[in-house]
């Protein structure tokens, strides 16, 4: 593609749920391959890509806690789940000849590198895709918060949150056919209208650091590339 990128460095948040695809549980390699293809298009036009991957397809601390488990232990399991997803994502990227590394907020010597912000910056400048795993490394946080945190840390120009719907709506569009999509939203509108885009920790982080976030549909092929060249997909959240 000869299209010029509008953003030099982005942070892409992929939910674990999206990785299930047509499988009943776990990871569908076909989904990963398609994502790798789309990410490769960004790398191809010179965009630096950081990824934060979720773990909800495998474990969520809150759900394990509801079933009776200690919350912190459940969150540890959830964070480890994101590392598994990250390994699968790296595998898909490397099979597509996209240079990539996984970093983990929880040290896991011999499997992935420990998160190091300066090293991550250097890799990104080099054109490598970096997958940030294990969330923030702390219980009671989500990978949405981790995405906003890492996005701010690596000085990304934009945080991209991939979802199943193409943006933020006035109500759940699946249940309410009259729901209207927002083209743009401010951080404060999300807070006052109590829109469930991301958890409050994540919203407050991006608001305090004026980090723009775009919510879009990852199942729509070409959407990711379109956003990066300045297209109007989904919903843009900014000040
Ligand atoms: N998690 C955590 N701290 C973090 C990020 C994640 O404890 O900083 C745990 C938490 O239990 C969460 C699970 O990891 O439920 C998986 O992450 P998340 O639910 O955000 O994944 P997604 O919904 O994006 O698939």
What does this structure look like?
There is one protein chain. This protein is an alpha/beta fold and 239 residues long. It has a single domain (9-238), classed as 3-Layer(aba) Sandwich (Carbamate kinase). The chain is 37% helix and 18% strand. The protein has 8 helices and 9 strands. The chain has helices spanning 29-44, 61-66, 71-95, 117-125, 143-153, 187-192, 200-208, 223-228, and strands spanning 9-14, 48-53, 100-104, 113-114, 129-133, 158-163, 184-186, 213-217, 235-238. It has a 9-stranded mixed beta sheet with strand order 4-3-5-2-1-6-8-9-7, with helices on both faces. α1 (29-44) packs across α3 (71-95) and α5 packs parallel to α7 (200-208). It is globular, with a radius of gyration of 17 Å. The protein binds uridine-5'-diphosphate (UDP). Uridine-5'-diphosphate (UDP) is lined by residues 15-17, 54-56, 60-62, 74-75, 78-79, 81-82, 135-136, 138-139, 141-144, 146. Its EC number is 2.7.4.22. It is an enzyme of class 2 (transferase). It is found in: Cytoplasm. One of its GO terms (cellular component) is cytosol. Homohexamer.
State the gist of this model.
This protein has 239 residues and is of the alpha/beta class.
Query: Which residues form runs of ≥5 with pLDDT under 50?
Result: none
Give the count of structural domains.
Answer: 1
Order of helices and strands: EHEHHEEHEHEEHHEHE
Specify the helix fraction band: 25-40%
The termini sit apart by: 31 Å
Tell me, briefly, the overall form.
globular
- Biggest sheet statistics: 9 strands, mixed
CATH structural class: Alpha Beta
Proportion of beta-strand residues: 15-25%
In quaternary terms, these chains amount to single chain
As laid out across the biggest beta sheet, the strand order is: 4-3-5-2-1-6-8-9-7
